[in-house]
Amino acid sequence: MSTATTIKNSDTIAIGGFDGMHVGHQHLFRELGDNGCVVVIDSGYANITPKRNREKFTHYPIFYFTLEDIRHLDAAGFLEHLKEHFPKLKKIVVGYDFHFGKDRAYNYDDLKEMFEGEVLVIDEVKVNGESVHSRTIRKKLSHGDIKTANSLLGHNYSIHGELIKGQGIGAKELVATINLHVRDYILPKEGVYVTLTRIDNEEHFHPSVSFIGHRMSTDGTFAVETHLLDGQVQCSENATISFVDFIRENIKYDALDELKKQINKDINIAKRELKMLEL
What is the Cα–Cα distance from 230 to 227, expressed in whole angstroms? Predict the structure, then answer.
């Protein structure tokens, strides 16, 4: 059965922006049953799981509405729009803070009043006492608080990019790295991170140390680069970096030998932490 047919036959949908596909979102998806579908209202500003990257974090089919195309609708118009795409619709699942329609004037109460089927509202979800929201995760990433961001996501925060040529200093005088050009994703705070890196579509991730920020000790340009701890890989087109923990701030060193000593310390920290994760 095609994805289009599966979506058309869905009788239960979860609606939201779903940037991050985080722990709170997963609570909605648990209510979808066997014939469920995730409906993304895409504002174009998603940067934790931009565009179709959301599809990596659910087995349910995803149908996309562009916000600009539906933001003018009132509650009745919105429901009619849903029924056109989901003629067998019996159940709608939304979060407690769900709003829709022109000026975000409508909420789940309007859905309950006008929809003849079931409207299930999922209450606020907390992890370690902290409310789970995409905006909170973005804030944690901007502060380099990777571990908390990952706990709210329910998975490691990851970015994907095209492999590009670096400045050429690493392999000769420091350590070899691969360099990425990253679009659409929010980047964590400048600094050095314990990471896992996947090259192209490999099934496994390589243990790695990654740097995000301006190369203050060399040419001052901005870079996203990663050093693979298990040796060189013949790189081709793209890579995915999965963040495990923050190691340190971005620091300027006056000499390359000082920078290399620090990089070796970073590598040892990453090896220890990743080794602990294997236990």
Answer: 9
pTM equals 0.93
Query: Which option is the CATH number for 3-131: 3.40.50.150, 3.40.50.620, 3.60.21.10, 3.40.50.720?
Result: 3.40.50.620
The correct answer on CATH 2.40.30.30 for the domain covering 156-278 is: yes
Reduced to 3 states (helix: H, G, I; strand: E, B; else coil), residue 2 is: coil
Tokens representing 53 are: 């990257």
For the stretch 109-121, pLDDT in tens is: 999 999 999 999 9
Contacts of 104 (CB under 8 A, 6+ apart): none
Alpha-helical runs (H) found in the chain: 3-8, 23-29, 67-70, 75-85, 108-114, 134-142, 146-153, 170-173, 256-278
What sign does the dihedral 156-162-167-168 (CA atoms) show? positive
CA gyration radius for the chain? 22
